[in-house]
Amino acid sequence: MKNIYLIGGTMGVGKTTVCQILKKELPDCVFLDGDWCWDMHPFQVTAETKQMVMENICFLLNQFIQCSAYKNIIFCWVMHEQEIINEIVSKLQTNGCLVHKISLICGAEELRKRLQRDVDAGIRTEDVIPRSIARIDLYRKLDTEKIDVSHMTPEQTAKQIVEITNPLFGS
């Protein structure tokens, strides 16, 4: 049985950091960050680019699912709408797989602090802060397991994901 982890959350909540840790904690694991499929300049969100990115994501995830070397497949992306999650799952070949849908959430003030550190380090631009905070409540409405990471380190978050998705492995 393979595990597919779909880990969503607003910008700056810590998805990529947590998934990099999780990748090392889970055996026979591969990780895809949806942002890698959007890494373009100039950044263009059109019907065509959205379709292309979704097709690329699902193709890569299916390749990982089919590969016998991997038992754990981690994917993270903003995934702020149920339709995005549903579309991805509907295009995956999930026979013999458990799909774990998880949303990382955090309070507005903590998110502001995390994003400001990135802005100060030159990793993000200032405009990401209000855009990301505006999306927080969208995650509470999704059909996902919610993990509030406001007071957790990335290591603690990764450990909790392992514990809730595979209690025997996490103990």
Shape: globular
Strand order of the largest sheet: 2-3-1-4-5
What's the rounded overall pLDDT mean? 94
Given this structure, which CATH class is correct? Alpha Beta
CATH architecture: 3-Layer(aba) Sandwich
Summarize this entry quickly.
The protein is an alpha/beta fold and 171 residues long. The chain has one domain (2-170): P-loop containing nucleotide triphosphate hydrolases (Rossmann fold). It has helices at residues 15-25, 47-66, 82-90, 108-120, 128-140, 154-165, 167-170; strands spanning 2-9, 29-33, 72-77, 97-105, 145-148.
Report on this model:
- The protein is α/β, with parallel strands linked by helices and 171 residues long.
- The protein has a single domain (2-170), classed as P-loop containing nucleotide triphosphate hydrolases (Rossmann fold, 3-Layer(aba) Sandwich), CATH 3.40.50.300.
- 48% of the residues lie in helices and 19% in strands.
- The chain has seven helices and five strands.
- A five-stranded parallel beta sheet has the order 2-3-1-4-5, sandwiched between helices.
- α2 links the parallel β2 and β3 (72-77).
- α1 crosses α6 (154-165).
- The protein is globular, with a radius of gyration of 16 Å.
- The model has no long low-confidence stretch (mean pLDDT 94).
